[in-house]
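Homework help board

Subject: predicted structure for assignment chain

Our instructor gave us this sequence and asked us to write out the predicted structure in token form, then describe one feature. I got the tokens but I'm not sure how to describe them. Can anyone check?
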Amino acid sequence: MTLALLSGYDRLTNMAAVGVSLFSALSSLGLLLCRRRTALPSDSGVFRAPRGVAELFFVGSLAVMVSLIATASVEILSALALIGVGVPIYGVIRLRRARGSATPT
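My token output:
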């Protein structure tokens, strides 16, 4: 809410677009890695997208991220900084949960 009031709606949507495109690229990369590790038989009944669709989406998402970072505007750099600050916080939270579940109650 503070960002919307101080910066304006346009800057806020630019920051959100950076986050969405970054996590879309990471999700498609995760899908590609999961497909590589898990071999499903062709008669398993599970839907699989045609070959190349996930790869094309990943390349497109990566191209969007590169073009956004290349503009190097204040909104994009601040969005990446906010996401970067959240990564260690996420790691700490996961570590706390792992330690909490390992201790007997």
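Reply (TA_rk): Your tokens look well-formed. For the description, you could write something like this. The longest helix spans residues 9-37. That's the kind of observation they're looking for.
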